[in-house]
C-alpha cells in the first residue's frame, strides 16, 4: 500500500472511541468523536498553500486530506472540535516514507511537519517531534470499516501518555 | 529479535492499564492489573507437560513463560486473577513465526494453540482462532519499561471488541 491508497481507505465518516492512559498517575480517560476525512486534490488551493508554507514545491504533492473532528473527552466539558489539512510528501527514493505536512499539530497548535512510514504490514506510523514533545502514532486497518490508532507521547524524555482509538466507519452494518 | 528475546524482555512485574472498546454498543470499559511474567526453562516439568498435551516433542521448546495476573475491570466486581503457561514452538524453517501453546486461552477457558509472528519492527502478533472467535493481538515495546498491546476480537464474522493495554514495568522511575 502506498500513502495515497492509505488516505483513500481512510476517506469517509468515522465514529471514534478514544482512550488515553496517563502513565504517571495511572488513570485513563475516554472520549468519543465523529471524524470526517475528505480527500483533497493536488491542485486544491489549501494543498498548494500548505506546501508553500513549508517551502515545498506543490508539484511534489498528489494531494492530501482534510480531517474534521467533533467530540468530547471525559475530564472536561469543553467541546473538542477542529479540522486539519494533511499533505504527504513522499521521499523521492523511498516513497513508502516521507514528510507529512499539517496546518495544525495534533498536540500543539502550531503547524509542524512529521514523518510517515508505511510498513510492509500496511500500517502507517507517524512520527512528530515538537520542541518539548515526541509523538509516535501507528494507524492500521483491521478491516476496511475498522481503523485502529495507537500512539505514545513523550515529554521531557519520558513517556507520559499512551492512547488508543478504534474507529468504525459510519453507515455500514458490519465492521 | 527472536521469540526468546521477546519473552526475556517481557519478564518481570508490570502494572497494566487496560481499556476495552465494545464496538457494537460504543462503550468502553477500563481495568487495571498487576502482571508477573516469569521465564521457564525447557526442562521445566510444566513446559514438558504442555508440549505433551499438544503432542509436540518437548525438545522443540527452549522454554516458555508463566504469566500471572491480578486485576479488576470496571463493569463487574469480580476479581480477575489467574495464570497461564505460554510455550512458543518456532517453525523449523522460519523461526520468526510459530505455534504458541497455552494451557489457558485468553478468551475461553479451554487451552488453545495460537500462532505468533515477530515482525521486522520487533512487534509480536498473536493470532488465536477459537471455535466461534478470532483474536489478533499485537504486543510491542515502546521502551524496555513500556510494553503496549492492542487486540481485536471477532465473533461470528464481525469485530466485536478492540482492546488496548499499556504496561509499565514496576520499580523503575522512568518509562
Automatic annotation (TrEMBL), chains A, B:
<dbReference type="InterPro" id="IPR018536">
    <property type="entry name" value="CpcS/CpeS"/>
</dbReference>
<dbReference type="GO" id="GO:0017006">
    <property type="term" value="P:protein-tetrapyrrole linkage"/>
</dbReference>
<dbReference type="GO" id="GO:0016829">
    <property type="term" value="F:lyase activity"/>
</dbReference>
<comment type="similarity">
    <text>Belongs to the CpcS/CpeS biliprotein lyase family.</text>
</comment>
<comment type="function">
    <text>Covalently attaches a chromophore to Cys residue(s) of phycobiliproteins.</text>
</comment>
<dbReference type="InterPro" id="IPR012674">
    <property type="entry name" value="Calycin"/>
</dbReference>
<dbReference type="Pfam" id="PF09367">
    <property type="entry name" value="CpeS"/>
</dbReference>
<protein>
    <recommendedName>
        <fullName>Chromophore lyase CpcS/CpeS</fullName>
        <ecNumber>4.-.-.-</ecNumber>
    </recommendedName>
</protein>
<keyword id="KW-0456">Lyase</keyword>
